[in-house]
């Protein structure tokens, strides 16, 4: 998608969330970013995101349209973070905040608006263990 196709103001009453497990794949990450239209989606909840060698999500245009939210203990927890949330920059930072959770597998964000408050949880559950539950 060309840069001029992105981030045009829209009048919408809905809230759209993109959810995907990327299986730590760079190709899946790039494909998602190419298709994650900020005019359509308000948030992305990603499980098993691709991180670069310094443990960050990156792309040249990512910060232009999205606030990247890492788990509360992303840089201090020994285990690799398995979740990531992208919040559309159209949404004022005055209308959302991170809910701290001490897990690399669970994240939460609280949105406030005319609708009241809503909490959205992004949870990664491994098929090989139940660590997220304990």
Topology:
Elements: E1 17-21, H1 26-35, E2 43-47, H2 62-65, E3 66-69, E4 83-88, E5 96-99, E6 106-113, E7 116-123
Parallel strand pairs: 1-2
Antiparallel strand pairs: 2-4, 3-4, 5-6, 6-7
Q: Could you please describe the fold and organization of this structure?
A:
With about 130 residues, the protein is mainly beta. It has two helices and seven strands; from the N terminus they run E-H-E-H-E-E-E-E-E. The chain has helices at about 25-35, 60-65, and strands spanning about 15-20, 45, 65-70, 85-90, 95-100, 105-115, 115-125. A four-stranded mixed beta sheet has the order 1-2-4-3. The protein is globular, with a radius of gyration of 15 Å. The protein starts with 16 loop residues before the first strand and ends in an 11-residue tail after the last strand.
Shape field: globular
Return the string of H and E elements. EHEHEEEEE
| Discrete helix count | 2
Query: Strand order, biggest sheet?
Result: 1-2-4-3
Oligomeric description of these chains: single chain
Classify the beta-strand content into a percent band: 25-35%
Which regions contain 5 or more consecutive residues with pLDDT less than 50? 1-9
Query: How confident is the prediction overall: mean pLDDT?
Result: 87
| N→C terminal distance | 42 Å
Summarize the amount of helix as a percent range.
10-25%
Gist?
The protein is mainly beta and 134 residues long.
What are the key terms here?
globular; mainly beta; disordered N terminus; 4-stranded mixed β-sheet
């Amino acid at each position: 998608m060309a840069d001029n196709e992105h981030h045009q103001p829209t009048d919408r009453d809905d809230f759209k969330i993109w959810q995907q497990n990327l299986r730590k794949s760079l190709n899946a990450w790039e494909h998602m970013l190419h298709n994650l239209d900020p005019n359509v989606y308000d948030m992305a909840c990603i499980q098993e995101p691709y991180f670069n060698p310094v443990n960050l999500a990156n792309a040249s245009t990512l910060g232009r349209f999205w606030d990247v939210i890492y788990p509360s203990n992303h840089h201090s927890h020994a285990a690799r973070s398995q979740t990531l949330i992208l919040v559309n920059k159209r949404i004022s930072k005055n209308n959302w905040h991170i809910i701290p959770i001490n897990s690399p597998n669970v994240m939460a964000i609280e949105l406030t608006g005319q609708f009241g408050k809503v909490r959205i949880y992004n949870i990664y559950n491994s098929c090989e263990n139940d660590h997220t539950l304990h």
